[in-house]
Amino acid sequence: MKTATSQSSKVKDKGETEDVMLKVMGKALTHNHWFHGLMPRDEIEDLLKNEGDFLMRKTEVDRKPRYAISVCRKGVIKHILLSYKSGMWSMRDCKKATLTDLIHTHVNEKIPVMSDGTLLINGVSRPEFYILHEHLDLKKKLGSGAFGEVYVGTWKKSDSETIDVAIKKLKGMMHKKERIEFVKEAKLMRRFDHQNIVKVFGVAPQEEPMMIILEFASGGSLQSKLKNTSDVSNDQLLNYCKDGARGMCYLAGRQVIHRDIAARNCLLGKNDELKISDFGLSVADRSLIKLEKLKSMPVKWLAPETLRKGEFSKKSDVWSFGVLMWEIFTRCKTDPYPGDTNQEAKKK
Predict the structure, then answer these.
(1) Is 260 a catalytic residue?
(2) CB of 151 within 8 A of CB of 165?
(3) Strands across the sheet with 94-96, in order?
(4) Where do the domains of the chain lie?
(5) Terminal CA-to-CA distance of the chain, rounded, Å?
(6) If I label 141, which of 10, 58, 102, 151 is the partner at 20 to 30 A Cα–Cα?
(7) 133-215 homologous superfamily
């Protein structure tokens, strides 16, 4: 029994040592322009266009972190997992103590990384919207959602400029599917530039936890403001509706279906203007999306055709906007259909 416990302890210690080593390695790698961190495979493949273009990314195999090289060879993107054994990193016959040395050796000495002669020629840099963790400073927690927590903080944009931002941080360790959804939301939001849509500055994917860096809406949550402030005028309530309509028109013009328009997903800017936020359920470049099951969906905000057939469109967003207007003018005192269960509301 003692021996089994001792072995179990050794395995645990070894696992913890490897985790620490990988974390330290990740921080060291951020100084290489070709390290892209935890970005999903389909997000980085578009960056590799020419023969020998390559980058390194962190991935997950059997729920364990691994490092991989993605390289372009004759128009095809190849993905190579790197091995770590006895304190050395290796790719084919080349072994080095650090990943940086391993990559530099393959590049400088033109050593193929595959038996077909694939070479690492040009390290592709991280896009501008990849922000380093070390340039972010998290301060007060503002709230939490399905995938993450939101903090107010600062972003060191350059040596001479630091700005206040909202930082959406993922809860705990993230699985591949969640990571893909998280990056998808950030990528979608980066396309937007409108005063009534919360702006995204970038993502921090190099280490755990991954983060999205957003415009800081200093007025806070619309829902909270309406619930806790008794003297908001009818004119201002109408202005919130107009702001929401402008944001909705902007999204519709770009073929985006939000799917979760509600007061809880609206923020207020420094001039008390409404900003649509939270694009975790949104889809782009589609006129219609159909779901078989409406699991975890906000029933009381959904259009009849969505409840009946699982269909989401720009028109179903308009229905949800109507519910949002009801929330605004009732000052968010209750959910829609007060006193009704989801099932009763669905019947109505």
Answers:
(1) yes
(2) no
(3) 83-85, 88-91, 94-96
(4) 6-123, 133-215, 220-347
(5) 63
(6) 58
(7) Phosphorylase Kinase; domain 1 (3.30.200.20)
Name the token pair of 244: 């929401």
* Catalytic residue chosen out of the listed positions 260, 278, 317, 335: 260
What Cα–Cα distance (Å) separates residue 132 from each residue in 59, 163, 189, 237?
18, 15, 19, 39
Residue 348 is labelled as binding a ligand: no
Q: How many CB atoms lie within 10 A of CB 210?
A: 24
Q: Do β-strands 283-284 and 76-81 pair in parallel, antiparallel, or remain unpaired?
A: unpaired
In a structure prediction context, what are the per-residue pLDDT tens digits for the chain, which is 348 residues long? 445 545 444 444 555 555 555 556 656 788 899 998 888 787 788 899 999 999 999 888 887 888 999 999 999 999 999 999 888 999 988 999 999 999 999 999 999 999 999 999 999 998 888 898 889 999 999 887 666 788 999 999 888 999 999 998 877 666 667 777 767 767 777 888 999 999 989 888 777 788 889 999 999 999 999 999 989 999 999 999 999 999 999 999 988 889 899 999 999 999 999 999 877 655 665 666 666 666 678 899 999 999 999 899 999 999 999 999 999 999 999 999 999 999 999 999
CATH of domain 6-123: 3.30.505.10
Residue 136: Cβ within 10 Å count: 18
The residue with tokens 């829902």 is 223
Q: May I ask the CATH architecture of the domain 220-347?
A: Orthogonal Bundle (1.10)
